[in-house]
């Protein structure tokens, strides 16, 4: 009775959606085909028009399984499943997984771009470890107070020092914000903390500031300042390279670099 009920339900589904139904392995009768009270070895559902919707996915009423192996689905419409879709392939159509998992026996191949359903926010964070001194070997950033509230200062050199680090973004990403964590307890006019995000055009010496944050040179503060600067820059890796540039006072523990962070958004996998 349970198998008969399942077969009846599938026939009903075929009638409702205008589907052409055929039993597998020899058709509806004869040797190797369906017999009374037994389900066929395979079924083929062909949608004449519109969408083929598989919901609910639990066809095995005895085990309660919620997995459908679609095999090979050829569709010009939309295949929608609310469970787990495994194996097989989808040709010339759109696969929409409303919930559950989409898995492949070996790999899932996408011929075009893998586009997210909604914009995703990503972050890129920096400490002083990866920053390289600019112009000369002196003035490199060295860690201080390691193990407790670690920070970096420009050790050696004189005057204003600089350090830089390359930044790699996914092509087409949109840069939205730059944050710098800087301590500045100096009132010296030349002593300040600054973080700048630049882009440089390939083959040219011209670089352009995308976003910049800095402390106020005339104001001393004994707290770590979180300085934020918004922007709206679309990444173009074909024509530009990107890097951050940190500025600080040499041999001055009153100007400290604690880190930086860049926020960007993406709409597709890279």
Describe, in plain words, how this protein is organized in 3D.
- The structure is a single chain.
- The protein is mainly β and 270 residues long.
- The protein folds into two domains: 112 residues, no CATH class; 148 residues, Galactose-binding domain-like (Jelly Rolls), CATH 2.60.120.
- It is 6% helix and 48% strand.
- The protein contains one helix and 21 strands.
- The strands form seven sheets. It has a five-stranded antiparallel beta sheet with strand order 12-15-20-17-18, with no helix packed on it.
- The longest helix has 15 residues.
- About 14% of the residues have low confidence.
Question: What keyword list fits this structure?
Answer:
270 residues; mainly beta; Jelly Rolls; 2 domains; 5-stranded antiparallel sheet; 4-stranded antiparallel sheet; 48% strand
Write the layout of secondary structure elements.
Elements: H1 2-16, E1 19-23, E2 43-47, E3 52-54, E4 67-69, E5 72-74, E6 78-81, E7 84-86, E8 89-91, E9 94-97, E10 102-103, E11 115-126, E12 132-133, E13 140-144, E14 151-155, E15 160-167, E16 174-184, E17 194-201, E18 207-214, E19 224-234, E20 240-249, E21 255-268
Parallel strand pairs: 3-6, 4-7, 5-8, 6-9, 7-10
Antiparallel strand pairs: 1-2, 11-21, 12-15, 13-14, 15-20, 16-19, 16-21, 17-18, 17-20
CATH names the topology of the largest domain as Jelly Rolls
Task: Please mark out the parts with pLDDT under 50 across 5 or more consecutive residues, or reply none.
Answer: 5-37, 55-59
Distance between the termini: 52 Å
Strand content: over 45%
CATH class of the largest domain: Mainly Beta
Order of helices and strands: HEEEEEEEEEEEEEEEEEEEEE
Helix content: under 10%
* Overall tally of domains: 2
Radius of gyration: 31 Å
Mean pLDDT over the full residue set: 72
Q: Architecture of the largest domain, CATH level 2?
A: Sandwich
Main beta-sheet annotation? 5 strands, antiparallel
What strand order characterises the main sheet?
Answer: 12-15-20-17-18
Structural class: mainly beta
Shape: elongated
State the CATH superfamily name of the largest domain: Galactose-binding domain-like
**Tally of DSSP β-strands:** 21
In DSSP terms, counting alpha (H) and pi (I) runs of 4 or more, how many helices?
1
